[in-house]
Amino acid sequence: MKTKIKAVAIRNLVKADTWIRWLGKTAKHIAVRSSSIETAHGLIPLRIYQPPGEGPFPVLVYYHGGGWVIGDLDVYDPLCRDLCNRSDCIVVAVEYRLAPEHPFPAAPEDCLAALKWTYEHIAQYGGLPNAIAVAGDSAGGNLAAVTTLQARECLPGVVKGQVLIYPVTDHYDPGTPSYIENANGPVLTRKLMMWFWDTYLLNSSQLEEGQTRHPRATPLMRSDLDSLPPTLLITAERDPLRDDGANFAARLSQHDNKVQYSLYAAASHGFVGLQGPNDHHNKAMSEISDWLTALFNA
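Request: output the structure for the sequence above.
Response:
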């Protein structure tokens, strides 16, 4: 009960912080439609962002961050508008189920369902089903990586690339250098990240007591990281998750996958999108857009 109360309190706090949604928003000319996926567990809300023009357009399926506990379509609306505007891609934003009400593996189940829906229906919205990439930040980066691994088996060839923005890739280790250096933030603290993990895995039907790693939760621990699509992986220097991202990029490269890794010096967690259009954000958005253009034009 205490975990749920804390989760609701944090969600309300994020909602109240209007700075996180960029005052005035951005890219108001982008066409936005709402949709949903009907599943055995209920509806998965989607928000579809379409750039101007005739198309058809390549597609980016976006999974928001928030430690699998917070975040929603409204908080990430400005970022998705900016991504759509700069990349000239249709962006499909996914509102997956959150913990603790819906513990692991609810989120990766929803994210895979959203990818499958996109592949089967995006042509109706002017998208190219043969030009789909996935993306996400923080916990959303974790879900993007996990979804790519799931899709390799059940939707082979569908995911053409993945954009992982300071992703969570392994269960927390307080002794990791980036967890020590950035224990008190800024933005994301070690204590908060540990609470996110504990909340996400609490009461999971897929885990035994004391188990903290699973193939659909901790992609860094997997040994089968071969035959994955190209990856753009971005980390922030002042972030407890910096080493999670760097280690995953190295593992992907060791398995002969094509990886572009970028460490943003002096940047902190959330610099893409959640802190508004700062210099680091603008640089990262340009890198992401250029990478997606090269990916889909290859």
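The chain has one domain: 2-297.
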